[in-house]
Write a structure and sequence with these properties.
By secondary structure, the protein is α/β, with parallel strands linked by helices. It has one domain: Glycosidases (TIM Barrel, Alpha-Beta Barrel), CATH 3.20.20.80. Helix content is 32%, strand content 15%. The chain is built from 10 helices and 12 strands. Strands 1, 4, 5, 6, 7, 8, 9, 10, 11 and 12 form a 10-stranded mixed sheet that branches. Strands 2-3 form a two-stranded antiparallel ribbon. The protein is globular. The protein starts with a helix and ends with a helix. The chain binds 2-acetamido-2-deoxy-beta-D-glucopyranose (NAG) (3 copies). The site of one 2-acetamido-2-deoxy-beta-D-glucopyranose has 4 residues, from loops.
Length: 415
C-alpha cells in the first residue's frame, strides 16, 4: 500500500512548524486478561485489526525479500526499511545477519517471515496484548508466489492457536484494467485459493458471510477503471462474500457528488479509507477528522455502507525512496504514540460508530507504519540511519500494548 511521497511531503511541510512534547499518552502497565479470550469471529463489529504484510524473506536469488531493494544482504546502501525489528524473541533459526552493525559491534539480525515460528510469535503477541487479529494481504502482483500461501497457512494456524481472527485483503494496487479484468482475476483467485480459508474457525464473518477486502480502487496511481472497480465488489458479493474496499481518503466527496469512483464505492458493503500521509498530528482534529471523517461516517450510514476508519502510528520512507530525499526520514513522526492515540480516540468517539478499525500496519517497516516490537534509538545500528522507538519506553512492545488499550476502549464503546 503506497501513496506518492510528494503528496506526503506537502502535508509534512505544512505541519513541520508545530511544536510537540506530549508525554501524557503513555499507557500505564496494564494487562487486559479479558481480551486474551478467543475472539468472536461471527462479526467484524468492534474489532481492531492490523494489516499484515508478511513479506519479509531471507535474501535469495529471485526473491523480493523486502529488506534490501537490490537483493543480497541488507546493509548500508542496500536496505529498504526505516525501522528495525526487535528480534530477541524470534526462533534463532529464523534469523540471518545483515551488514548493519549494532552498538555492541555485532551484526543486526533480521527475520524470514516464512520460517516456522515467526507468524506464531506475532499472533502470540496479539493475544498477549488483546489485539483481535489481522487483515492479511494477498498481493495481486504475486498471486503465484507460493511463499504467500505459506504465510496464509501459518496465519490460519496461529489465529486458531491463539484465539485471534483474520480476513484476507487483496492488495490490487498493481492492477490494470486495460490489461484485462481485475475483477475476474480476483474472483478466480478467491474461488480457487482464498475461499478454502474462509471455512477456518478463525476466519472473520459479517452478516453470515466471510469478509474479504480489496485495496486499490479509486487511486489515481492505480490503473483500475470505475466499472472494473464496481465489478470487483459485485462479483465477490455474488460469490457469497461480504466485501470491503480500501479507497482514497477523498472518497466521500466523490460519493456525495456522484463523481469519479462513486459507483464503485457504492457497490461495496464496507469502505475503509487509506489515510497514511493524508494528515499530520497538528492537522488531524480540526482538519481531517472534523471536515472529512465525520461527514464521511454520515454519508456511509445514509447509504447503508459500513465504515472501517484507518489509524496509523506515523510514517517514514527514507530508504524506500532511495535515500535521495532527507525529508522522507521520519516525515510523519510518532511523537511517542500521541499521534496514534489521537486518531484512535477520535475514531472511538465518532457518533456513528465504525464497524471496525483498520490499524496500519502490524509489520510495515518499509513505509514505517509498523507496530511490531522494534529497536529503540539506543539499539540502532551505527552504520546507517533508522528511526528508533523512544529510549524511555518500558519495552519494545510499546505500540502493541498501546494498540491493545485502544482496541479495548473501542470495543467497549461499540458493544
Ligand atoms: C518522548 O518521551 C520522552 C520521555 O518522556 C521525551 O524525552 C521525548 O522528548 C519525547 N519525544 C517526543 C517527540 O515527544
Ligand atoms: C511493555 O510495556 C507496556 C507499556 O508500554 C506494558 O503495557 C506491557 O505490559 C509491557 N510488556 C511486557 C512484556 O512487560
Ligand atoms: C496498463 O496496461 C496497458 C495495456 O497493457 C498499458 O499500455 C499501460 O501502460 C498499463 N498502465 C499501467 C499504469 O501500468
Amino acid at each position: 500500500m503506497r501513496v506518492t511521497l510528494s503528496s506526503l511531503l506537502l502535508v509534512a511541510t505544512a505541519s513541520a512548524a508545530k511544536a510537540h512534547g506530549n508525554h501524557e499518552n503513555h499507557p500505564r502497565a496494564h494487562q487486559n486478561y479479558e481480551r486474551t479470550a478467543t475472539v468472536d469471529v461471527s462479526t467484524l463489529k468492534g474489532k481492531w485489526l492490523y494489516g499484515y504484510q508478511g513479506w519479509f524473506r531471507k535474501p535469495a536469488s529471485g526473491v523480493n525479500n523486502h529488506w534490501s531493494p537490490n537483493g543480497g544482504t541488507p546493509g548500508p546502501g542496500n536496505v529498504e526499511v526505516d525501522f528495525l525489528p526487535d528480534v530477541s524473541q524470534y526462533p534463532t533459526n529464523c534469523l540471518f545477519p545483515s551488514t548493519l552493525t549494532a552498538p555492541n559491534g555485532q551484526p543486526v539480525q533480521l527475520y524470514d517471515n516464512t520460517c516456522e515460528g515467526v507468524v506464531d510469535l506475532h499472533f502470540k503477541w496479539m493475544q498477549q496484548y488483546g489485539i483481535d487479529g489481522v487483515i492479511v494481504q494477498r498481493f495481486l502482483s504475486h498471486l503465484s508466489d507460493a511463499s504467500f500461501i505459506t504465510i496464509l497457512n501459518q496465519v490460519e494456524a496461529a489465529a486458531v492457536k491463539y484465539g485471534r481472527g483474520f480476513i484476507v485483503e487483496y492488495d490490487a494496487s498493481g492492477g490494470n484494467s486495460s490489461a484485462g479484468s481485475v475483477a475476474n482475476e480476483i474472483l478466480a483467485d478467491y474461488n480457487s485459493v482464498v475461499k478454502t480459508y474462509t471455512s477456518s474457525s478463525a476466519y472473520i464473518h459479517q452478516n453470515g458471510k466471510p469478509a474479504v477486502m480489496v485495496f486499490g480502487v479509486g487511486f489515481p496511481t492505480v490503473a483500475i477503471s470505475v466499472s472494473d472497480g464496481a465489478n470487483i465488489a459485485t462479483q465477490l458479493k455474488n460469490a457469497g462474500a461480504y466485501v470491503g474496499l480500501g479507497v482514497p481518503s477523498t472518497f466521500g466527496s466523490d460519493v456525495r457528488g456522484n463523481t469519479g469512483f462513486a459507483s464503485a464505492y457504492k457497490a461495496a458493503n464496507l469502505i475503509s479509507p487509506w489515510t497514511v500521509g493524508s494528515y499530520s498530528e497538528g492537522g488531524y482534529m480540526a482538519g481531517y477528522h472534523t471536515t472529512t471523517q465525520i461527514p464521511d461516517s454520515q454519508t456511509l450510514k445514509s447509504l447503508g455502507i459500513d465504515h472501517a476508519p484507518l489509524v496509523w502510528p506515523g510514517t517514514s520512507a527514507y530508504h524506500l525512496n532511495g535515500v535521495t530525499n532527507p525529508s522522507a526520514f521520519d516525515y510523519f513522526p510518532r511523537y511517542n504514540g500521541s499521534f496514534y492515540s489521537m486518531q484512535a480516540d477520535a475514531v472511538t468517539s465518532l457518533a456513528i460508530k465504525p464497524l471496525f478499525v483498520f490499524n496500519a500496519m502490524f509489520d510495515e517497516m518499509n513505509e514505517g507504519t509498523g507496530n511490531l516490537p522494534s529497536l529503540k534509538t539506543s539499539q540502532l545500528p551505527t552504520n546507517d540511519k533508522f528511526v528508533g522507538y523512544d529510549n524511555t519506553f518500558a519495552n519494545t512492545s510499546f505500540y502493541l500494548a498501546l494498540g491493545g488499550q485502544k482496541a479495548t476502549a473501542f470495543a467497549k464503546a461499540v458493544n
